[in-house]
Design brief:
about 475 residues, alpha/beta, Aldehyde Dehydrogenase, Chain A, domain 1, Aldehyde Dehydrogenase, Chain A, domain 2, 2 domains, seven-stranded mixed β-sheet, six-stranded mixed β-sheet, about 25% strand, globular, binds nicotinamide-adenine-dinucleotide
C-alpha cells in the first residue's frame, strides 16, 4: 500500500516515501509520503486559502460536518481499529476503544461548535460609557499547525481537528512518523462529510524538518503540539508570537490509603490496568504507586498476581493485553532503566524480561527517588510500588516530580481526599480513580514539564479563537 499526502481535500502523491512498520512482526504495512518542505508549504497555502470558506460557514453547518464525520467513523470502526493496531502496535481491544473515543470526541466537537458564545459587557460601568451596549465574540484564528505523537494516532489527532474545525479554523496535521495512517484515513472521511477542501490537511514526514516550516510561516497562527517535553520545549522556544499549546509527558502517581482497604482487590485491578494498558505508552500511565504501609503487603501481592494474568501477544489477537513496544530503541531504553534501578537496590517483583519487541509487565519496589524509573517518564510497561506511612508522605512524594499531569488517590476519607486534591501540583486530580483516566470533554493540561495550555474540546476552542469586543453606541454620535 502506498499512501500520499492529504492536501486540499484529496490524497496526492509525494516524490518520496518511507516504510511504516508494525513493530511486533517487523512487517512493512505501508509506504507513506515523506513530505518535503515544499509540500508542507503547499499544504499551508491551501489551508490559508480555505480559511475564508471555513470562517463563512455557520456554526450549524460546522456541527453538521463534525456529526457526519463521527457517523462515518463509527461505520468504519473495525477498519480504523485495525489500522491503529497495526501502525501503533496497539492491542486491538484498546484500538477499538480509541475509535469509540474518537467518535465521541467528534460529537463533543459538533456540540461545542454551536456554543461558542461571548458575553455582554456593561460599558456604562465606566464613567463616560453610558449609552453603549457591548458584547464579545470568539473568532477563529486561521491556520493551525498540529503535531501529534504515535500513541493515540486517531483520538489525539481528533482532539486538535475537532475543536479547530468546530471553531471555523483550518488545520494541518503532521502525524508521528510511526503512525501516519489513521490521520490520513480520517482526513478522507471529512471530505465525504462535506468539509471544504483545504480545511484539513495531513502532511506526514520528519518532525524537525516539517515542524521548522510550520514554525517559520507567519500564516500558521498556532502550534498545537502533543508529544515529549524535549520537543515541546524546543517548539515553544521557536514559536515567537504564535500561540502554542503543549500536551507533554508525565510520571503519574497514585496514592492508595488504608481507609480504602475494603476495596483492595478492585483498586489493585484498576491500578494494573492503569499501569499496563497499551504497554504503559500513555502520557497518564500509572507509573508510581504509593500505598499506605498498613495495606502495602496485601496490595503488593494482589497487584503482582493480577499483573501476571496479563496476556502478552500479537496486537491483532483479541486476548492480547500487552504486546511489543513502538520500537526496539524504546525496549532497550526501558530495560536499561530497569537494570539501573535493580543495581541501585530495587527488588524486581515480576517482569523485567524482553519478549518479542516488548517487555513483560514489570513491577519494582525499593526504588530510590532518583532512579530513572521513578523520576523520568518511563513510557513503558513498568510500575513502582512504594509503602508510605501516611497521606502526608504520599503527597510529598507525589509532588516530588518534574511533571504534573494527572494524579489519583483512593481513599474513603473525604477530608483527606480534598486536602490531597488541593495540594497536588498537577493539572487534574482523580479521586477514587487511577491517574490513567481521561474523558474527552474534560479540561486536560499539565503543569511543570507536563505542558502548557489545555485540551478537552471546549477548552481547546478557547485557545483556538480570539476574543473581539463590539460596542454599540445607541445614545449619541
Ligand atoms: P515525540 O516528541 O518524539 O514526537 C511527537 C511529534 O513531534 C511527532 O510527530 C514528531 O515527528 C514531532 N517532532 C519531533 N521532533 C520535532 C521537532 N524538532 N519539531 C517539530 N516536531 C517534531 O513524542 P512521541 O514519542 O511520538 O510520543 C510520546 C510522548 O508524547 C510522551 O512523552 C507522552 O507522554 C507524550 N504524550 C502526551 C500526551 C498529553 O496529552 N499530555 C498524550 C500523548 C502523548
Amino acid at each position: 500500500m502506498i499512501k500520499g499526502l492529504f492536501i486540499n481535500g484529496k490524497e496526492v502523491e509525494s516524490a518520496n516515501t518511507y516504510a511504516v512498520i508494525q513493530s511486533h512482526t517487523e512487517e512493512e504495512i505501508a509506504q507513506v509520503a515523506d513530505a518535503t518542505e515544499e509540500e508542507m508549504q503547499e499544504a499551508i497555502d491551501r489551508a490559508h486559502e480555505a480559511f475564508r470558506k471555513m470562517k463563512a460557514l455557520t456554526s450549524n453547518k460546522r456541527a453538521e460536518i463534525l456529526y457526519k464525520a463521527a457517523d462515518l467513523l463509527e461505520e468504519e470502526k473495525e477498519e480504523f481499529a485495525r489500522v491503529i493496531a497495526l501502525e501503533a502496535c496497539k492491542p486491538i481491544t484498546a484500538a477499538r476503544s480509541e475509535v469509540d473515543r474518537s467518535v465521541q470526541t467528534l460529537r463533543f466537537s459538533g456540540e461545542e461548535a454551536k456554543h461558542i458564545a461571548g458575553e455582554y459587557i456593561p460599558l456604562d460601568a465606566a464613567k463616560g460609557g453610558e449609552g453603549r451596549d457591548a458584547y464579545t465574540i470568539h473568532e477563529p484564528i486561521g491556520v493551525i499547525g498540529a503535531i501529534t505523537p504515535f500513541n493515540f494516532p486517531l483520538n489525539l489527532v481528533v482532539h486538535k481537528v475537532g475543536p479547530a474545525l468546530a471553531s471555523g479554523n483550518t488545520i494541518i496535521v503532521k502525524p508521528a512518523e510511526q503512525t501516519p495512517l489513521s490521520s490520513l484515513k480520517l482526513a478522507g472521511l471529512f471530505t465525504k462529510a462535506g468539509l471544504p477542501d483545504g480545511a484539513f490537511n495531513v502532511v506526514p514526514g520528519e518532525g524537525p524538518k516539517l515542524g521548522k516550516v510550520m514554525l517559520e510561516d507567519s500564516r500558521i497562527q498556532k502550534i498545537s503540539f502533543t508529544g515529549s517535553p524535549q520537543v515541546g520545549k524546543l517548539i515553544k522556544s521557536q514559536a515567537g508570537l504564535k500561540r502554542v499549546t503543549l500536551e507533554l509527558g508525565s510520571n503519574s502517581a497514585l496514592y492508595v490509603d488504608n481507609s480504602a482497604s475494603d476495596s483492595l482487590q478492585k483498586i489493585a485491578g484498576k491500578a494494573v490496568t492503569g499501569a499496563f494498558i497499551y504497554n504503559g505508552q500513555v502520557c497518564i500511565s500509572t507509573q508510581r504507586i504509593y500505598v499506605h504501609e498498613g495495606m502495602f503487603e496485601a496490595f503488593k501481592q494482589a497487584f503482582v498476581e493480577k499483573t501476571n494474568e496479563l496476556a502478552f501477544g500479537d496486537p491483532l489477537d483479541d486476548e492480547t493485553m500487552v504486546t511489543s513496544l513502538i520500537n526496539k530503541k524504546s525496549q532497550e531504553r526501558i530495560l536499561s532503566w530497569i537494570d539501573e534501578a535493580v543495581e541501585n537496590g530495587a527488588t524486581l517483583l515480576t517482569g523485567g524480561e524482553r519478549k518479542a519487541n516488548g517487555i513483560l509487565p514489570t513491577v519494582l519496589t525499593g526504588i530510590q527517588s532518583s532512579d530513572k524509573v521513578s523520576c523520568r517518564e518511563i513510557f513503558g510497561p513498568v510500575v513502582i510500588l512504594q509503602p508510605v506511612q501516611n497521606h502526608e508522605e504520599a503527597l510529598q512524594l507525589m509532588n516530588e516530580s518534574d511533571f504534573g499531569l494527572n494524579a489519583g488517590v483512593f481513599t474513603n476519607n473525604l477530608q483527606q481526599a480534598l486536602k490531597i486534591a488541593h495540594s497536588l501540583d498537577v493539572g487534574q486530580v482523580l479521586v477514587n480513580d487511577v491517574p490513567t483516566t481521561r474523558f474527552d470533554h474534560m479540561p486536560y493540561g499539565g503543569v511543570k514539564d507536563s505542558g502548557y495550555g489545555h485540551e478537552g474540546i471546549k477548552y481547546a476552542i478557547k485557545e483556538m479563537t480570539r476574543l473581539k469586543m463590539i460596542s454599540l453606541n445607541y445614545c449619541c454620535f
